Amino acid sequence: MKAFIHDHRVVYGVEPICKVLPIAPSTYYLHAGRKANPELRSTRAKQDEALS
Q1: Neighbours of 30 (CB within 10 A)
Q2: N or C, which end of the chain has less CB nearby within 10 Å?
Q3: Torsion angle, CA of 35/39/42/44, rounded to 10 degrees?
């Protein structure tokens, strides 16, 4: 769902998409922020990435 929002956010906007889908806008923004700045991820997420 986050990928869908990311792909269509320019055309429709994040909040309108989230109103239709069962997801809070904050969930998307949290995901987008962590993807843009990997240092914001949790220690567990960093360890999981190192293992993959």
Answers
A1: 13
A2: C
A3: 100
Residue with tokens 């914001």: 40
Residue that has been written with the tokens 């999981």 in this structure: 48
What is the residue-wise DSSP string for 17-52? HHHHTT--HHHHHHHHHHHH-GGGS-HHHHHHHHH-
Averages of pLDDT over runs of 10 residues in the chain (52 residues) are 86 92 84 69 74 69
Tokens of 40: 């914001």
Q: What is the pLDDT of residue 16?
A: 93
Q: Give dist(CA 23, CA 45) in Å, integer.
A: 21
